[in-house]
Amino acid sequence: MDKNDPERHTKTPSKPAVGDANSQNPAHALARISETVPAAAGNSKTPFFYAIHAERYQRQSLIKRIQDEVTHRKLICYIAGTAALINRDDTLGMVDVLHNIGNGSDLDLMLHTPGGDMDAAEKLISMTRNRVGNGHLRVIVPDFAKSAGTLMAIGADLIIMSDSSELGPIDPQITLNDAHGNPIPQSIHSYLDAYKAHSEALQKNPGDETARIMLGKLDPATIKLFEAASRRARTFAESQLKRGMLRDKSTYTKVASDLLDTTRWLSHGQMIDHNDALGIGLDVQYLDPQSTEWQLIWQLYALQRMAVKDDCKLFESDWVSVPLGA
Fold first, then answer.
1. Is the separation of the CB atoms in 146 and 111 below 8 Å?
2. Backbone phi, then psi, for 324, in 5-degree steps?
């Protein structure tokens, strides 16, 4: 975001007349939105300044058009690179994109993240929900919102997904070194499941030497830590579901359990598509990838993703554009 730029959104051409055939055609809509807008005479942005920031203005022009012509609600975006995990510094960007959102407003949050810090994720979605209040919050997942990102998404009233969209299991992860010292991410629940299985085997047969050896490799203090982390993930998920999409339903406990189920999701990165999400009881709206709305969403995501390096994040709205980690 350029603090010296008094106009942080781009002026756009007027909307097409009602009934204009081109207004319903995704190709024509994308062509209109992809146009760059030259600075008008007397505009505070000089031609060179405009050229330097042209890509940002193009994205913000597209955000404004999606709001004005398609969704009729504000859109804020959190787009992360593949190595940029959710963390406490994200508060800075989230505060900025929420700055001009009125209390009680309907809001869309476009979310793309590999996951990260569960506590930071809770803060980000809580900040968003507090601003929305009695309004309606949708989370749009253009590509993926994994792990802690899924925990954020289920805090919405509705999740928007298409064929390219995926959520992920919410079982907490821990990094342990293998026999060669290589760091290997492991599921906390898998660790706890192994502890439970060996404990039960030893109770049934005190002479089971294999179970005794395996239990000896599992640290009791680590077990307690992992059990607490598991309860934390479950509590987080249930609280988000109760506050959002399942506030009037009693299924939030089962949905949280399903998202934590390592026997169903065999890897932490396993894809939960829109059909899976609907199947476990999440409120999901599916958009056809050829629909005008999804074409515009995907065009915006593609532009933003190309602007973000793998270790960076972009917080963006029609008013602000905040890169973090660049």
1. no
2. -120, 140
- Indicate the number of domains in the chain: 1
**Tokens (6 digits) for 237:** 């998920």
The answer to whether residue 11 sits within a structural domain is no
d(CA 201, CA 100): 59
Q: Which residue, among 120, 124, 155, 115, has the nearest Cα to 138 in the 3D structure? A: 155
C-alpha to C-alpha distances, 308 to 8, 51, 110, nearest whole angstrom: 19, 19, 15
Amino acid identity for residue 256 in this structure? A
Beta bridge partners, 79, equal: 112, 314
CB atoms within 10 A of CB 144: 22
The answer as to whether 139 is a domain residue is yes
Whether residue 79 lies inside any domain: the answer is yes
pLDDT tens for 264-315 read 998 889 999 999 999 999 999 999 999 999 999 999 999 999 999 999 999 9
Stronger pLDDT, 170 or 213, i.e. the higher one? 170
Q: Give Cα 248 to chain centroid, integer Å.
A: 24
Of the candidates 198, 190, 189, the one whose C-alpha atom is nearest the C-alpha of residue 230 is 189
pTM: 0.80
Residue 325 backbone zone (phi > 0: left; psi -120 to 50: alpha; other: beta): left
What is the span of the domain harbouring residue 160? Answer: 21-168+271-324
Lowest mean pLDDT among 33-47, 184-198, 254-268, 298-312: 33-47
Are 108 and 76 in contact, with CB atoms under 8 Å apart? yes
Identify whether the C-beta of residue 98 lies closer than 8 Å to the C-beta of residue 322: no
Q: What does 145-188 look like in DSSP terms, one character per residue? A: E-THHHHHHTTSSEEEE-TT-EE-----EEEEE-TTS-EEEEEH
Q: Which CATH number fits the domain that encloses residue 65?
A: 3.90.226
Tell me whether residue 232 is in a domain. Answer: no
Provide the pLDDT confidence category of residue 178 given band limits of 50, 70 and 90. low
Question: Could you report the per-residue pLDDT of 167-176, keeping only the tens digit for each?
Answer: 999 988 776 6
